[in-house]
Design goal:
Length: 167
């Protein structure tokens, strides 16, 4: 089984896959007379297809055991999907570029505590994977008619490891 070790997620190394949702970017400015700072335009929510609209939901995810046997990734053909953690804990992010016939090799990242991600429409990704304990997330994705879920089961599984020292 191919072994993949997750690497720390940064704006730079995740840029080819999607958007990072945190306060580490440069696009921020004061609002409300200086009583608040807005971290602006971190990601775009995409919603296409019949009766499409952008949804804001919450998800309580249960943790996965590691090393993880990754057998499947999914994508959403009609819209993007963002996961913003409501607690300052890292979670695992799996993404793939498009391959010749389905997803390419998986790339595994571990977020910084509190960091969220946005998968653009049709980005292959692993399902939500908390680490160590249950974690709540805000989810921004697409609602509407039609099937917005496409799954791909790999012909061979991948063994996903967390970096040494991850809780
Ligand atoms: N179905 C759902 O809300 N979540 C998945 O799409 C996922 O990416 O975890
Ligand atoms: Ni998804």
């Amino acid at each position: 089984m191919s072994r993949i070790v997750a690497r720390p997620l940064t704006r730079e190394n995740f840029a080819e896959f999607g958007d990072v949702i945190d306060m580490g970017g440069d696009n921020h400015y004061p609002i409300n007379g200086g009583k608040a700072e807005r971290y602006h335009d971190l990601a775009t929510a995409e919603a296409q297809g019949p009766n499409a609209r952008v949804l804001i939901s919450m998800v309580r995810g249960t943790p996965y055991d590691f090393p993880l046997k990754l057998t499947m990734v999914e994508r959403h053909p009609f819209g993007s999907q963002a996961f913003i953690p409501l607690s300052p804990r890292p979670f695992l992010v799996i993404v793939c570029h498009d391959g010749d016939d389905g997803p390419g090799e998986p790339h595994a990242f571990i977020t910084a505590p509190g960091q969220g991600v946005n998968y653009p429409r049709n980005r292959w990704h692993g399902v939500l994977m908390p680490i160590g304990e249950s974690q709540d997330f805000l989810v921004v994705d697409r609602g509407g008619d039609g099937s917005n879920l496409e799954e791909c089961h790999f012909s061979h599984a991948y063994e996903i490891h967390l970096p040494d020292g991850t809780a």
